[in-house]
Amino acid sequence: MAIRTYGQFAVDWEQRVDLARLREDRLAKLKAQLAASSLGALLSFDFGNLRYMTATHIGTWAMDKLMRFAVLPRGGEPVEWDFGSAARHHQIYNPWLDHTPGPPTPEGAAATGARAGISTLRGALHPDAGIAADVAAKVAGVLREHGLAGEPVGVDVAEMPVLAALAAEGITCVDGQQVFLEARRVKTADEICLLAQACSMVDAAYERLYEFLRPGVRENECVGLVARVLYDLGSEFVEGVNAISGERCSPHPHVYSDRLIRPGDPAFFDILHSHLGYRTCYYRTFAVGSASRAQRDAYVRCREYMDAAIAMVRPGVTTGDIVALWPRAQEFGFADEMAAFALQYGHGVGLSIWEKPIFSRLVSLDHPEPLEEGMVFALETYWPAADGWSAARIEEEVVVTADGCEVITKFPAEDLLVAGRKYWTAGGALDTLRESQSQLNTAAGRGERLPGPAVPTGGDEPQSASAGGDG
């Protein structure tokens, strides 16, 4: 085992995650990727990219608002505009940003590492307020300051009014997301440690969930339990808990409900949360009370596809090599790979849950990507059961090592686990491999001949109750 899982606190007696090194390494990788490109600067509105570039964070409430932005000029340091007083906070508490005032910009503000600024709040601010034009003027000012006016700018995601305003400033915008994703593709040692810590927190959540699962609880109750465990352990953000049970398992709806879990149900869960920004994507499947043979067989098939993929992982192997091991969409009931997308799947994990590399028959056979040491990604397999309604879902996160990989999702998944109360009958323990329709587990239900009533063999022997008589 090469990957250490340290305690979450800072101590003076052990070298653990080095957060200063984490910040420096991420920015250095991004600068190197920018220098190798044809771009003059990167402009980011994406929450994960902003954190990778500037190591700033103002809370997950801001993730979907596209209001914060930052520019990384080629040969320079990041300049970030943040939400109101958050910029002042960065100036006080984020010394790694270059807060040295530069020459005045056309809009009159000094070029510091963090300053107040805002985008259009996804159109909520009045279009005539000139906010989009102000964003463009701020970006143009940084480009001029660094002698990059006229150079193309790589943008990750942006609102249409902002793109139009940048064009009006004479700024040519191109796709910058690939530059960010290439920088983030291979993880540093500190990133790998944080990803392993994030998984260890989900290990604990699954332990509690396994104890909690039983007939009569609702899917949404399971979601609440997992969120509570993770937040108590220090999670920064529980991004989602996918809780699917019973007949909802096939087809997979990708969203939890208020359904009551019943005896004999399959139930699978995906737990996504953030530890210091680093995500998990981590599926497990359970049977509640008991498992049918169809459920068990689906799980075995699902596990076989997973194990084949993990055994293949090592540097130099491609995403195409991995997905070639997995079934075609038509083999498990879908018309094509688009319709089955994300069921047999893999994706990088880092500051977001879907990063490079991507593993899917939809794209990977024609556009394979080589695996490299230090990549961290999740592999997901799915198989619908022969009964037409249950299914199995497994996901493991792996770190690519020099000669293979290491799995960092540790909650048991090699066999189908049965959760809930152990039941006892007059004849002993109730078999946990059984059909949820009770009659199918009896001799009569299986169509077998039942033993007949006792037959008298002599006049002195008592007759059976079914033989009649006065008694």
What does it look like?
The protein has about 475 residues and is α+β, with helices and mostly antiparallel strands. It folds into two domains: about 20-185, Creatine Amidinohydrolase, Chain A, domain 1 (3-Layer(aba) Sandwich); about 190-420, Creatinase/methionine aminopeptidase superfamily (Creatine Amidinohydrolase). Helices cover about 25% and strands about 20% of the residues. The chain is built from ten helices and 18 strands. The strands form four sheets. It has a six-stranded mixed beta sheet, sandwiched between helices. Strands 7, 8, 9, 10 and 16 form a five-stranded mixed beta sheet that branches. It has a five-stranded antiparallel beta sheet with strand order 12-11-13-14-15. Strand 13 (about 375-385) and strand 14 (about 390-400) form a beta hairpin. It is elongated. About 40% of the residues are buried.
